[in-house]
What does this fold into?
Amino acid sequence: MSNEATPAAQTSAGTEQAQGNIASFIDHTLLKPEASEADILKVCAEAAEYGFKSVCVNPIWVKTVKTALKGSGVLACSVVGFPLGATPTDVKTFEARGAVLDGADEVDMVINIAAARAGDKGALVEDIASVAEAVHASGAILKVIIETALLNDAQKVLACEAAVEAGADFVKTSTGFNGGGATAEDVALMRRTVGPELGVKASGGVRSLADAQAMIAAGATRIGASSGIAIVKGEQGSSGY
It folds into this structure.
């Protein structure tokens, strides 16, 4: 009898491998303003169980997440200027510094969207660079949310170029709170703009394994999702983020 696996078995094994690899791309996310401590701890337990890359939460929960994830290998991620980006640079910088002091390994900041729409690259670079300095001083990683749903392609390119110039580590599609979400087309555009060195995070509306795989094929190196468990199980998530 042949030891060769049947096509069905090969497909199943391939799916399991893809799903396992997908987990390491996912920032398991809970950014709802009404989230409770119990909700946060549940997300942390899920992240540790499934081997997600990080848990992404609002700044008030960073200490809780850092403690809950100790020894798990899962990173603590927080957000700055979230979800509008319409916060003065010095306030974003202060917020970022506080997040990393509380234990955030990664910080996702929202850009000055009005500056991007106005074509003001200098303002974008100044905003991002100040936050980057604060984040990098503690050895943390900075992701820059450009909010693709509110920008045209030229503005998306400008925002990505500003992130590169300002020393960011990632560009990110969306907050998930201002309409729209990640698309493979936007991810591909961002990847072409930033080149191979920066990370690209697809977030907002990524709810299935097929969604996540499409984003990765387009150039994403990280996925932000609150449907992480559904993604790794090959199911369809229902969360809005």
The first strand starts at residue 26 and ends at 30. The chain has a mean pLDDT of 92. The two ends are 49 Å apart (CA to CA).
